[in-house]
Amino acid sequence: MRVFVTGATGLIGSAVVAELLGNGHTVLALARSDASALAAEAAGAEPLRGALADLDVLRAGVTQADGVVHLAFGNDFSSPEALAKNVTEESAALAALGEELVGSDRPFVTVSGTPQAPGRVSTEADPVPTDGPVGGRGRAVTAVLGLAARGVRSAAVRLPRTVHNQGTGGFAGLLTGIARRTGVSGYPGDGTQRWPAVHALDAAVLLRLALERAEAGSVWHAVADEGDRVQDIAAVIGRRLGLPVESVPPQTYGPLGPIFATDQPSSSAHTRQTLGWEPKHPSLLEDLENIQP
Q: What is the overall mean pLDDT for the chain?
């Protein structure tokens, strides 16, 4: 099928584009800059110039596609206001994409984060949060799943806190960037909180499977590692960068501080059993060995 992909040139998106092209699909890629357009072309996709905020461009992309994979999200996590802007922009984009798909029975795959389940590992049956720093995102994804009742084969692939490739990406990548800036490989609290993770190439396979096979209104977990201790993540980062490893205040991480400090392991047992998804690429702790000093 011809697939419209937002966020097609990012760490996850580039893996998804390659996975789709490698399995007989063609890709129309949203490209917000000349550089992104060139990268999309080089990967074998057709670029469509526009940003996530350009709702008319998004609608035009849908009209040219047999299905949609939405991955784009703002990269500014510097303040609560910036994070809220990211969420608001994505929510409007999801609403525009969804409305254009109503009644078409075409697939619409979007992403969110894996939820927290206090005292246990979260599963696909747990709801995403609809309040807190990213509650708006939970509400928007829930609305996308609700489009199943309006003739859209909608599905949500929940991505873990770190989607990684060659030692970069996700929350672990943010820890690495902060360590480089501050000279300390830090972790919030006692560091025993656990974060799930997945390699970007494995996540790309699941996103393709959801596009091809997922039932309307279904939820899937792209989780390979159920939960790595943040202290262990910071230890690898510190060793690779030659920096001390220490506990730091949660406010070090700005608006993401409360999320970073939370224990949030997650399972993908249902996803693996139902879709036959089986991660094959290096774990997060193995992949972080690729960090360059």
A: 95
